[in-house]
């Protein structure tokens, strides 16, 4: 993990709709992963999109575990 590349994004859980800050490590490049909601503990599917040109975080998509991102 590269601490200079950490980016906190305000998001809402797709299950309970509670807001929380999601910390994303952009040094990993674009990827998909899972994170549990800090409130309801439901599994959230994440798609992290990082620019291949400058390595900047472009987008963070969240979805339920039964959705296709």
UniProtKB/TrEMBL annotation:
InterPro entries assigned: zinc_ribbon_bacterial (IPR025990)
Pfam families linked to this entry: Zn_ribbon_21 (PF14255)
Domain of life: Bacteria
Name of protein: CPXCG motif-containing cysteine-rich protein
Origin species: Billgrantia endophytica
Phylogenetic lineage: Bacteria, Pseudomonadati, Pseudomonadota, Gammaproteobacteria, Oceanospirillales
